[in-house]
Design goal:
The complex is a heterodimer of chains A (415) and B (262).
Chain A lengths: L13 H22 L4 E4 L5 H6 L3 E3 L1 H10 L3 H10 L8 H12 L3 H6 L9 E5 L5 H13 L3 E4 L10 H22 L5 H23 L10 H7 L1 H5 L4 H19 L10 E6 L7 H10 L2 E6 H4 L11 H8 L9 H14 L4 E7 L12 H9 L3 E6 L9 H18 L2
Helix pairs in contact in A: 1-12, 3-5, 4-5, 8-15, 9-12
Chain B lengths: L5 E7 L3 E8 L4 E8 L4 H16 L6 E7 L11 E2 L2 H12 L4 E6 L4 E6 L5 E6 L8 H11 L6 H7 L11 H13 L4 H17 L7 E5 L1 H5 L2 H10 L3 E2 L7 H12 L5
Parallel strand pairs in B: 1-4, 4-5, 6-9, 9-10
Antiparallel strand pairs in B: 1-2, 2-3, 6-7, 7-8
Classes of the chains: A alpha/beta (415), B alpha/beta (262).
């Protein structure tokens, strides 16, 4: 029998630092949950974390926990628990996996860090910029823990970000402060927020520089690396530790560029990924592409934690802007313009769109965008059907055949 | 018997395994098809023996072999693998060397592949997760109707009053079929409805530009599907000489040209 091709994965030394960062982050939350202090706020992945940090909360992000459920392949067995209590298999599988895990009383934090359960929230704060599902998700936990649930309601389909958008979101952010002060038991100080926004901005800038290293030929980083390296950009923004760990990672990537060391051996094809990762298949997908000498080197997903608008001199307004300039809430025209810029910057040969069954908000291939972009840029695209967490919605064989045929197609274009 | 080199393509599909043997000039010399079964390697071996016998050749004359299809990694004698998308494209382009849109209806999946005038793929689509429109759908419906698969084509041709099946889903379609049976519809009218449903699922996959070529085992055994497609899209549809073997022939052509397009 022929052997399946396997390519060695090149690990980054700084990945160990990121793992330590994540372990310390969760251990600190666990200790606080058990001691009852400091207070804990749950926050959506692009929620107003800086305000929460300014008020002294430790901040826990259920989406990251759910991504861990996906990456550890626990999610698929847990999703039916949530389905059974009325959460459809067609809605966000982050939500269903996470609620399913809670109902079953399990967490990937146990195996990873020896932590028995997720930290009990004192307050839950969402921003619907990711989707409406986060609101339902947080409301469910709010009732379970008898904790207040606060939220920011985003605009969607935003073409040009205007002052009208910013003023409205800024007002909603300001309105969070009095009830959060009450839970925190302390007064909000603008100086604390400036500091948190400043750290968030630094983290964001470093994360951008890290992802931008993929413009080098060969690219020193892959999208699959990025999905695990992005932990501090999501859970650690607004903290000095995240800034520190990213400085080191950036140095390592720049060193790889100097040595012309690619993340994938003999990089021949440069691929852009749009949509969610398939968390339970990160390693398999990394291997699949590396064996074909194709590097999926840039993505909309990892770029979504770059918040260049953040400005410590005008923290609330700049947060409102950063969280409204976000790709996921923009119009198709704005999204296409963004992807065009990325294709050019990263010198991409092909685009892969992941059509995630339970994540319509982050599947950008359902309204003709691939066809429009292909026509404009001449860069071929492929749509793969799958899901972020629910492996019942995935056909590995179909994905493999599609990807291999796509690389064959790119190869033919060079003849 | 000349001692010229032979090139082998083996297409291990989800339903059938096909082997094609060609010579250096690209002429077809041998063919074989068997049920894929559960031991893909043994089936591929058996097909090769049969196809070589037809070609009048010995295994020693095989210069190179390429495998394709779901079981492509299980073929012991293949030096390399190509996807079935590439092989069906190559096989069809060999028969019709111009810009074409290939429709392959397989046991588990359908493909729409677009080729430019030079035979380069400009894009392709595979069906999504569900079985609607594939050979598996046809098998399920034959079982529901309790008729042999091989009789379906003749029955569909006889139909004068086709029933309409509305669902994407094979299970839902089966329920619709049961409902039509309950209402006393003729079996041939239901079979034609099943065929029409398959064709509809395919034209939904992609726009059919250029000349359309249909291929695959389902088309080979059910040529009425081609006529229905012609009626639906309003233009002639081409079919290569051995539609069930197009993938295997494409693989053999890859074996011959060392991955250059034929």
């Amino acid at each position: 029998m022929s052997e399946e091709k396997k390519a060695p994965r090149k690990k980054l030394a700084a990945a160990a630092d990121i793992n330590r960062f994540m372990r310390d982050y969760y251990l600190e939350l666990d200790a606080a949950a058990r001691a009852g202090s400091p207070k804990i706020a749950w926050c959506t992945s692009v929620g107003p974390a800086e305000i929460l940090r300014a008020l002294g909360f430790l901040v826990y992000f259920p989406e990251t926990h759910s991504a861990m459920l996906g990456a550890t392949r626990m999610a698929t067995d847990l999703i039916p628990e949530a389905n059974a209590i009325g959460y459809s298999p067609d809605i966000c599988s982050y939500l269903t996996a996470d609620i399913g895990a809670f109902l079953r009383g399990v967490t990937p934090l146990q195996k990873a860090f020896g932590i028995q359960s997720i930290p009990r929230p004192d307050v839950l704060v969402y921003n619907t910029n990711q989707c409406r599902d986060v609101q339902d998700w947080f409301v469910w936990y709010g009732e379970k823990f008898n904790a207040p649930v606060l939220g920011v309601h985003t605009y969607r389909g935003v073409d040009e970000v205007t002052d009208r958008h910013i003023v409205s979101i800024a007002k909603q952010l300001e309105a969070l402060i009095p009830p959060l002060e009450k839970v925190a038991g302390r007064r909000f100080e603008m100086e604390d927020l400036r500091r948190a926004v400043d750290l968030s901005r630094q983290c964001s800038e470093l994360w951008k520089q890290i992802l931008d290293t993929a413009a080098a030929r060969p690219s020193p980083i892959t999208f699959f690396d990025g999905t695990t390296l992005m932990g501090p950009a999501v859970v650690g923004r607004g903290t000095p530790q995240a800034v520190e760990v990213y400085r080191k990672l950036l140095e390592e990537l720049e060193e790889r560029i100097r040595r012309r060391e690619g993340a994938v051996d003999e990089e021949r094809f440069r691929i852009y990924w749009d949509g969610m990762p398939v968390w339970g298949r990160l390693s398999a997908h990394a291997q699949l592409f590396a064996a074909l000498h194709a590097n999926v080197l840039a993505s909309t997903y990892c770029n979504s934690w770059i918040f260049s608008a953040l400005d410590p001199n005008d923290p609330i307004t700049s947060m409102a802007r950063a969280y409204t300039e976000l790709f996921i809430v923009r119009s198709d025209e704005a999204k296409e313009e963004y992807i065009r810029r990325m294709l050019s910057f990263f010198q991409v040969d092909g685009i892969i769109y992941h059509d995630a069954k339970t994540c319509p908000n982050n599947s950008n291939c359902r309204y003709g965008m691939p066809q429009r972009l292909e026509k404009e840029t001449g860069i071929p695209s492929l749509i793969i059907n799958g899901d972020l967490n629910d492996l019942r919605l995935i056909s590995d064989e179909q994905t493999k055949t599609n990807v291999e045929a796509f690389i064959e197609q790119l190869e033919e274009r060079r003849k | 018997m000349s001692e010229e080199a032979l090139y082998v393509g083996c297409d291990v599909g989800s339903s059938r395994t096909k082997v094609a043997v060609i010579d250096a000039a690209g002429r077809l010399r041998g063919l074989a098809v068997r049920k894929s079964g559960t031991d893909f390697a043994a089936t591929a071996d058996g097909c090769l023996t049969e196809a070589l016998a037809m070609a009048g050749g010995e295994p020693g004359r095989i210069a190179r072999a390429v495998s394709t299809g779901y079981g492509r990694m299980n073929v012991r004698y293949a030096q390399d693998q190509r996807t079935e998308i590439g092989c069906h494209a190559g096989g069809c382009y060999h028969a019709f060397p111009r810009a074409i849109t290939v429709i392959d209806i397989g046991g588990q999946d359908n493909k729409v592949i677009k080729l430019d005038a030079a035979g380069r793929r400009t894009g392709f689509k595979m069906n999504r997760k569900c079985a609607a429109g594939t050979g598996a759908f046809l098998e399920e419906m034959a079982a529901r109707l309790d008729i042999p698969l091989e009789r379906m084509n003749a029955m569909a041709e006889r139909s004068a009053d086709m029933v309409r099946l509305g669902s994407f889903c094979t299970v839902f379609s089966a329920t619709e079929v049961l409902e039509h049976i309950r209402h006393g519809k003729k079996i041939e009218d239901i079979v034609k409805g099943v065929f029409y449903s398959m064709i509809k699922r395919i034209v939904e996959m992609d726009s059919l530009t250029a000349e359309v070529v249909m291929t695959g085992g389902v088309v080979a055994h059910n040529p009425y599907l081609v006529r229905m497609m012609e009626e639906l899209i309003g233009r002639p549809v081409l079919v290569p000489p051995h539609p069930q073997f197009t993938g295997a022939i494409g693989a053999a052509l890859y074996a011959r040209s060392g991955f250059r397009e034929s």
